[in-house]
Amino acid sequence: MTKRALITGVTGQDGAYLAENLLEKGYEVHGLRPYSAVPDEGRIEKLEELKLHYGDMIDGGNILRLIDAIQPDEIYNMAAMSHVHVSFDVPEATANINALGVLRVLEALRMMGSKGKDIKFYQASSSEMYGRSPAPQNEKTKFEPCSPYGTAKLFAYWTTRNYREAYGLYAANGILFNHESPLRGEEFVTRKITKAICEIEAGLKQKISLGNLDSKRDWGHASDYMEGVWQILQAPEADDYVLATGEAHSVREFVEVAFSHIGINLAWEGENINEVGRNKITGETLVEIDQAFFRPNEVHHLLGDASKAHNKLGWKPKYSFEGLVEDMMRADRIIDKQSKPRAA
Ligand code: G4F
Fold this sequence. Notes:
This protein is α/β, with parallel strands linked by helices.
């Protein structure tokens, strides 16, 4: 029997990788996207078999009707206002989508009675929920969120657990550490860096402005993580799992490794807001600090311990940190792409 999946937030990085993964596994895949006046299908346009529906996490009736009409075997909630910095500007909207939106899906499943109990639910929980809790973090680590995004995600995490316990729903959390790819939005630091460096190489830009260079993240590849997300819903009992690489790097290291792909070594000079990254050979300033990219409250060090997912699900990421940067740089290179037709 063909399995049917419903993915909310299908137009985002994770939704797109997950949809592709499930289609390859033979699933019938339905994707929910909110109405957008500007084109938002870039990441999924090659997925011809994907069935798209307009759906919005702030519309409970819409969610209930869609779940009832599609009757999926599995629901993956990837919809979110996913930018931590922006969540400080729009805290109420963030809570409405990221917290109450999850409650709306779970209430829909509860209202469907026994039919709802046959549907497995995955919640995209986040390592941002750990906030200031010391690294390394795993499923037993205390949550100390320090952003509106983190607090909203924590509400959704606990609501998922409570609906599992109170109503016997198959509802599982994946606590995913940062996961990146060539499909990552350009407003996130990794893609902002790889895109800007490739533009610098092509002579389209002179330097890149960044915020906190010293915060550390456990960066993995989104394609590895979406396989783990699927594995989480295949476990006989619903449970909560951390997915992470177990290796943390600073934003500064990410910048250095990415610049090395275009043959540039950086030398850092100055301190705090006055720090700059210069080309070691030419002295040209390539990185500068801009106060606008600092957050009112920062998560300094995220480093995940995914041994539970490894031991119980057999999940292990394939990409290394260097492999991730290489993949993103390869996809963003303008010079290589321009030279391809000439070489052909
Ligand atoms: O790339 P970021 O914006 O990702 P962040 O805040 O860690 O959140 C991402 O990962 C979470 C999982 O932990 C997800 F839940 C969330 O949805 C999202 O996918 O920032 C990473 C770090 C931060 O410490 C930030 O302060 O990079 C620092 N940073 C330094 N300069 C910058 C910049 N971040 C951004 N976006 N832009 C900068 O110019």
